[in-house]
Write a structure and sequence with these properties.
The chain is mainly alpha-helical. Helices cover 63% and strands 0% of the residues. Helix 1 runs antiparallel to helix 2 and helix 1 runs parallel beside helix 3. The longest helix is centred in the last third of the chain and has 22 residues. The C terminus is likely disordered.
């Protein structure tokens, strides 16, 4: 295939990609709650580096496994900084 031809994502790939980006944004929103600037900077760099290091994965099962691990880590961070859990539009817990 010539390099000028773009390869489109399937709907499933698009949906998984949006979950990954959502997790990335949620991690950064949680990090904003940390008072110490140097800790915030360190965690932002760690999150970015971790996502970049795993960017090459294409197997859906691998990506879903990493999403589950990432959600767990973000939830732990939220509890540690007092951010609680994610809330839905109605204010209820996201469980």
């Amino acid at each position: 295939m010539p390099p000028s031809v773009k390869k489109f994502m399937t709907l499933r790939q698009f949906m998984v990609r949006s979950q990954v980006l959502g997790l990335y944004r949620e991690a950064l929103r949680t990090i904003r709650l940390i008072d110490n600037q140097s800790e915030r900077d360190y965690l932002k760099k760690w999150v970015r580096d971790d996502f970049e290091a795993n960017r090459h994965h294409t197997a859906e099962t691998t990506i879903r496994m990493m999403l589950t691990q990432g959600k767990s880590q973000v939830k732990e961070l939220q509890l540690a900084v007092g951010g609680g859990t994610s809330r839905g539009r109605d204010g209820s817990a996201g469980f």
